[in-house]
Amino acid sequence: MVGEDENLGTLAAGATVFGFTPRAAVRAEVAEQSATGSRFAVGGVRFTLPAPGWHNVQNAVAAIAACQALDVPLADMVAPLAGFQGVARRFESVGVARGIEVVDDFAHNPAKIAAAIATARARAGRVLAVFQPHGYGPTRFLWRDFVETFARVLGPEDRLWMLEVFYAGGTARRDFSAAAIVAEIAARGARAEFAESRAWLVHRIAAEARAGDLVLVMGARDPSLTLLAQDVLGALA
């Protein structure tokens, strides 16, 4: 169980708590972050993880806790974690053009969006974020959280472009547009725009981006988002 998630406290009895908190039975210590990865220790054993972001350290510690439950020695976990090559659409670098990196990420809820943007900021001067919400029901439910999160985590020079809600079928009421969410984010002071089409968006990013920026394409359930990230990279070349 993640030690930092206080809402899981009622489930702690009998569970293995992992994370950064002092109450964690499997605890990451002496953690160091860089733009490309992390170094940390568990039980006095030092690990190197070639994946950026505190959330990935937390994921690694979860894997360590699971392996310990199966009696795998800590020392036997060092090399596999050091050789970790990442997972598709989990802060996956699509490429670099004109000094601008394009990253494809599965972030789709407020907590994951905040983690992805924080990770991007550690390796770029400015974050150009693209987000496509998915599902009208989930987006309606998380509306306020999206507004609060983007308003909080975007820096004064960062940009946000939000695409229309991805609709995968079903009976959900399609009675609002992501443009309304963008308007609320912009009203909070963030530099946010609604992207009416992907063609417009690719052109807009190509005109706006400059060396040192990182373009972060976020969203879930729509496999064509990877193609969008590739189109952005192509337009920057």
From TrEMBL:
Protein origin, superkingdom? Bacteria
Q: Which InterPro entries match?
A: Mur-like_cat_sf (IPR036565), Mur_ligase_C (IPR004101), Mur_ligase_C_dom_sf (IPR036615), MurCDEF_pg_biosynth (IPR050061)
Span-the-membrane segments of this chain are none
Instruction: Please state every residue range assigned to the domain named Mur ligase C-terminal.
Output: 89-221
Pfam families for the chain: Mur_ligase_C
Molecular function (Gene Ontology), one example: ATP binding
Q: Which protein are we looking at?
A: Mur ligase C-terminal domain-containing protein
